[in-house]
Amino acid sequence: MSNPQNINSYRRKFMQGIGVTAAAATLAPGMLLREVQASNKEGYVTDKVRWGMLIDTNKLVEGGQEVVNACKKEHGWGAEAHSNERQKASWVRKVTVTEKTTGYVNQLPVMCQHCETAPCVDVCPTGASMKRADGIVLVNKHICIGCRYCMMACPYKARSFVHESLFDQHADSPRGKGTVESCTMCVHRVDEGKEPACVEASNGAIVFGDLNDPNSNISQKLKAEDGKQIRADLGLNTGVRYQGI
């Protein structure tokens, strides 16, 4: 992982108007952040597919604690990987919601909602916040300058900023001091034909699949049982839907 001096050098050159290629070259040889993206198979990522998740809160254990734990293990954030929690990573968090009129309390995991019209992408000045053709929203750590506009724009508080140097990182989940991070929908697993780690750990509470395919399991369940978007009034057409809220 690049050291702070190299990252600061990159930022200065970026702000001076030097292109991304030149800026990336300022990092030490062999020390570039590895970008999370599709596999090298030509045409692998396509807009014919839109990946999404349907979360049944009634089936979650402890409000989705197993989902949070699986994410921490897969991506190496949280107390299990680091001795302090000052990073306050927000890849996924458990939220408690109380219905004011009845007092009913519900808990659910909230992560990046992978919006079709993503506010974080709209406000990013460098293009670091991006949406793949298949609907997965990511952060390109090579060109993130840490302005945190995306954090302010996200209505789900699903992004966090890395304040300190990190160690023992996972190869598939690059994290860098001075950059923003969030749920990647386990893109490295998806590109290998696997399900996200949270889906695998949810014991059937989360269904993952292609929202564009009317015959997929997730589309069939949404047709039969429906699913709600958090803040549907914003018109973002989220890729994550919920049942039981």
From TrEMBL:
Nucleus recorded as keyword: no
GO molecular function, one term: 4 iron, 4 sulfur cluster binding
UniProt keyword list: 4Fe-4S, Iron, Iron-sulfur, Metal-binding, Signal
Domain 4Fe-4S ferredoxin-type: 135-164
InterPro entries listed in its UniProt record: 4Fe4S_Fe-S-bd (IPR017896), 4Fe4S_Fe_S_CS (IPR017900), DsrO-like (IPR054822), ET_IronSulfur_Cluster-Binding (IPR050954), TAT_signal (IPR006311), TAT_signal_bac_arc (IPR019546)
Pfam families (alphabetical): Fer4_11
Protein name, entry field: Sulfite reduction-associated complex DsrMKJOP iron-sulfur protein DsrO (=HmeA)
Organism: uncultured Thiotrichaceae bacterium
Organism phylogeny: Bacteria, Pseudomonadati, Pseudomonadota, Gammaproteobacteria, Thiotrichales
